[in-house]
Design a protein that fits this description.
Layout (H helix, E strand, L loop, with lengths): L47 H24 L10 E7 L4 H14 L3 E7 L5 H10 L6 E5 L3 H4 L8 H7 L7 H6 L1 E2 L2 E2 L2 E2 L6 E5 H6 L8 H11 L1 E2 L5 E6 L10 H11 L9 H15 L11 H6 L3 E6 L3 H8 L5 E4 L12 H5 L9 E2 L3 E5 L6 H12 L1 H12 L11 H4 L9 H7 L2 E2 L12 H19 L3 H18 L3
Helix pairs in contact: 2-15, 10-18, 14-15, 18-19
């Protein structure tokens, strides 16, 4: 589940005591009693000031050594009691409590203090807490945040990475998403992709089959759309073409760009073509417009034929309209060969591209944690097949399904559910870029989305134009350089 749905306190380290500097008394010292003959190994042959200095140094080294040993308590052997704090999102405490209880039963010396956070300004609060030394041992972050947290997140120990098989046992997009500079920095508990939701009744009325291509989707959207005599849309065919009321429009644009073989980090003519095509659904085809409610609300109301969304929107739709007859399918594709036109590709001629879009959350360990060994022990359990199954089963007690498994050997268990099958299958060929919606990061994703939003709005109002594309190139280029992303 993305977990974007609506829904600090380790004690600061005590400062080491200041070692006093020896100051000789001002009054004359008492008379010195007769001394025994000097022994052969005595240091009394040294001048008294030197002996004083040596004494102070020995005292300093003794105190420093004690504090150094105390400071190592966070890396103590696993048998030493430890309490780790865990900041999570989206999952209420009762859901994860059972999973934690299973872990604590097997690890009686480790306690987990789970705190569900509000998504509102979460990234900023998390970074501030970590910077000030008040942050949690374990925290949830969006996978696109790795460049933002690279100095505050601990690399996954090689032993943990090898035990879990992070390179081979997870969907390729998951392994890619949790790596940075050839190191793994987080552990995945889920994966999610963008899929095509459809209203079964409206599709049946249009007499259509599910589309294979964007062209097929475009034709069905026109057949489904209903308007008044004045042209006001009453039933929309497809939520596409605008930015103000199309939920996840940036993910859709990212998907289109990757399918078109372009680089969203280097907007060129291929990106320009995508922006132009996207806006045609509101400017020319008129299957959607900016006066309508948000696409999620319109779809839940039964007034929208097709709608793009991740898996967690399923719960919002079910809650808003339990009786809605809808299904979920894989996203449309483009013809693999430019020599095959859309109509022929829709009819089944030739191969199609096989590119999908992923956006999900992962778990990391603070680089400043005093309990790293215990934190990795707990996360290793959560990310294991046993932990993931417990997590899924616990979530399924309070909703229709849990988070989609990121492990390929577990994901097949979910494909019998027709609502989950598209998301699971799409994970095999998913990719991503920094256009993921609803991360609430107020930085990398949100800033990148804003540049694309401005370009799309300009194309919708004035048609394709060089000025909008140049502004997009400049803005995106600055962010790529600033955050050092590929």
């Amino acid at each position: 589940m993305n977990q974007n749905q609506p829904t600090a306190n380790p004690d600061p380290l005590a400062q080491a005591p200041v070692i006093p500097v020896f100051v000789p008394p001002e009054s004359p010292p008492p008379p010195v009693a007769p001394q025994e003959p000097v022994k052969k190994n005595s240091l009394s042959f040294l001048p008294k000031p030197v002996l004083i200095i040596l004494g102070v140094l020995l005292l300093f080294l003794l105190v420093f050594g004690v504090f150094k040993l105390l400071g190592k308590k966070g890396s103590a052997p696993s048998g030493e009691p430890a309490t780790i704090t865990y900041w999570g999102l989206w999952e209420p405490e009762p859901v994860i409590r059972g999973v934690i209880a299973q872990f604590e039963k097997k690890h009686p010396n480790i306690k987990v203090d789970y705190k569900m956070q509000s998504p509102r300004e979460y990234k900023a609060r998390l970074q501030n807490a970590l910077t000030s030394g008040q942050g949690p041992d374990i925290f949830r972050l969006h996978h696109t945040w790795l460049p933002l947290f690279i100095k505050q997140i601990e690399p996954v120990p090689d032993a943990v990475a090898q035990k879990l098989g992070l390179e081979a046992n997870y969907f390729p997009v998951v392994s890619k998403a949790i790596s940075y500079n050839q190191r793994f920095y987080a552990l995945p508990l889920q994966v999610d992709t963008l899929a095509l939701y459809y209203n079964r009744d409206l599709l049946d009325q249009a007499g259509g089959q599910l589309p294979r291509t964007w062209w097929g989707l475009q034709q069905l959207a026109k057949d489904i759309t209903q308007t008044t005599e004045s042209g006001k849309i009453t039933t929309a065919g497809l939520a596409l073409g605008t930015t103000n009321n199309v939920d996840h429009f940036s993910d859709i644009i990212g998907l289109m760009i990757l399918q078109n073989g372009a680089d969203p980090g280097k907007p060129d003519q291929l990106v320009r073509d995508v922006l132009q095509y996207y806006t045609l659904f509101s400017t020319k085809e008129k299957v959607w417009d900016k006066t309508l409610p948000s696409s999620t609300i319109q779809f839940a109301a039964g007034k929208l034929g097709f709608y793009f969304a991740p898996s967690w929107r399923y719960f919002e739709i079910k809650q808003a309209n339990p009786g809605l007859n809808f299904g979920i399918a894989r996203v449309p594709q483009l013809p693999e060969s430019r020599e095959i036109d859309f109509e022929a590709a829709e009819a089944g001629e030739g191969e199609l591209t096989n590119v999908t879009w992923a956006s999900f959350w992962v778990e990391g360990v603070s680089a400043g944690s005093k309990n790293k060994a215990a934190a990795w022990e707990f996360l290793s359990y959560l990310a294991s097949a046993e932990g993931l199954r417990h997590f899924y089963q616990a979530a399924s007690q309070v909703r229709d399904f849990g988070e989609i498994y990121p492990l390929t050997n577990l994901a097949g268990e979910l494909t019998t559910n027709p609502y989950l099958e598209p998301f699971v299958k799409q994970a095999e060929n998913a990719d991503f870029w920094y256009l993921c919606s609803d991360t609430h990061d107020a930085s990398l994703n949100d800033l990148m989305i804003k540049y694309y939003e401005d370009a799309l709005n300009s194309f919708a109002e004035s048609g394709p134009n060089d000025e909008a594309l140049e502004a997009l190139q400049l803005g995106v280029g600055q962010l790529v350089e600033q955050y050092q992303i590929e």
